[in-house]
Design a protein that fits this description.
globular, mainly alpha, 363 residues
Length: 363
């Protein structure tokens, strides 16, 4: 069993959350503090006043756009799974996706969702864990293809803005690091030898530490053999997904479609509170906001993302109270509602998995 698989192999699908509940609670407390500070600085009265002007028709449109994004996302994942294995029916896959969104949205750096997808696929459908993980990883790679392209443009354009040199350097460095990180993932996912070298190198450095935590007698040779086995299975599925021309083109088109829908939804959130920002600054700031959401600090980068948006939209001439108000509307549709639905989905599959395991343990 791989280290990733062990991470989510608990008595039910919520095991990962119970195992890391202290870290999750502390990170949410930190998020609440940051949100409080941002709200206080932006002005609570101004935020409430802006929210009271919300156009509920536009609010509903933002929710509908988010629903379309989820549908397209499910379709993209299904197409990948159909290439490397056999996908469950569309509705089942969408519920699994919601469960993974729950895992992503409550863990710092969105670290829990992809292993959770693979775990549910294995327990419910019997898909090998490494195949399921390869499909979810390939799906995430497709998601960031448009982001990488737009990030390059954003890094160039943001240098022309009237902001501090340190902000320019920080944003540019983060964008470049993100591009490098995902480039390495894609290259390692296709190149089996590179993937083995990277994984074994990390495992070798961490092995002495984990050896102190376990009472079992285990050698690094045993660990490395298991890792190589799963890496081979993973890279095979990953390469199949990315090397299939039809999937590559379709995934690329769907990803840009999702990015476009999300951009429109983000614009509608501002429009709902009576603000219509210029398109170019919106694209740049949105891109930086997505990048900030990737930082493994706080679940959903709550507060951190809002503070970044406030700082950057100030350059575009939009006051902090309206930015926070639009961000709240954005978070309701893209974070809180999917998280709540995902929680029910995770509990649903948790009960199914637990009930299926009970008869097996009785023998």
């Amino acid at each position: 069993m791989s280290p990733i698989e062990k991470e989510v192999e608990q008595e039910d699908v919520l095991g990962f959350i119970r195992e890391h509940k202290k870290k999750i609670i502390l990170s949410f407390i930190a998020a609440a503090i940051i949100v409080f500070i941002v709200t206080a600085l932006a002005g609570l009265d101004g935020i409430i006043s802006a929210l009271q002007k919300t156009n509920y028709w536009l609010l509903g449109i933002s929710f509908i756009l988010e629903a379309f994004i989820i549908l397209v996302w499910t379709l993209r994942w299904k197409l990948i799974l159909d290439v490397i294995d056999e996908s469950p029916k569309f509705t089942s896959l969408m519920v699994m996706l919601f469960a993974s969104l729950f895992g992503n949205n409550i863990t710092p750096g969105a670290a829990g969702g992809e292993p959770l997808r693979a775990y549910i696929l294995r327990e419910v459908k019997g898909t090998p864990f490494e195949i399921g993980f390869a499909s979810s990883t390939a799906d995430r790679v497709f998601e960031f293809l448009p982001f990488i392209i737009i990030s390059v443009l954003a890094a160039i354009l943001i240098l022309t803005w009237d902001i501090s040199i340190w902000t320019r350097v920080l944003v540019t460095v983060l964008i470049v690091l993100c591009i490098v990180f995902f480039s390495v993932i894609i290259y390692a996912g296709i190149n089996k030898e590179i993937a083995q070298r990277i994984t074994l190198s990390v495992a070798r450095s961490l092995f002495p530490f984990f050896l102190k935590l376990t009472r079992k007698e285990i050698t690094f040779l045993e660990i490395s053999q298991k890792l190589i086995f799963y890496i081979n299975r993973f890279t095979t599925g990953f390469a199949m997904a990315l090397k299939d021309k039809k999937i590559l083109i379709t995934g690329f088109v769907l990803s840009f479609g999702m990015w476009g829908l999300d951009m429109v939804r983000f614009y509608v959130c501002f429009w709902a509170v009576g603000i219509q920002p210029s398109l170019l600054p919106l694209v740049i700031i949105y891109t930086v906001g997505v990048l900030i959401s990737l930082l493994p600090l706080i679940p959903g980068s709550l507060g951190i993302r809002e503070a970044t948006l406030v700082a950057l939209f100030a350059v575009a001439g939009i006051s902090a109270d309206y930015v926070v108000a639009a961000s709240i509307i954005d978070r309701i549709g893209s974070y809180f509602i999917p998280t709540i639905i995902g929680a029910f989905a995770a509990v649903y599959y948790g009960k199914i998995i637990t009930s299926e395991k009970k008869p097996k343990s009785a023998h």
